[in-house]
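Hey, can you fold this one?
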Amino acid sequence: MDVRDERLDPVRSFTVNSFRLDPERWREFVSDEKNQVKFNSFFNTQDYVNLFIWHDPEAGLSAGLDFPENLRAKVICVSKTGSELLTQESPKNMLIHDVHGEDVTSFIIVAFEEVRHRHHLLLWLTLMLT
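Sure. Predicted structure:
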């Protein structure tokens, strides 16, 4: 994945602001091969609906396709609004939230309901327009 991939722009902006990161730290994070695999898996397959980013004081900035367990720090969740791929032409089909580790259950419920609501709204609009 190219560090300049436009799909990363909203994620970069939100993450840098939320964690008060130096932009160079973000570039290093995105350039890491393991993180590139996770970003590619999230953007380019239908297998993953969420991408999680967190900052651990000991481990630094991390990303994962599953919510990190036993974490009491802030976590950023990037969610697709549907099951489609996030292409260069559709980078805005995602929601970005942050949540603290102890609020995981309530956050997942809210994020799921938001995605489900948007999906139903899109289906309804499609039916109305056809």
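The first strand starts at residue 50 and ends at 56. Let me know if you want another pass with a different chain boundary.
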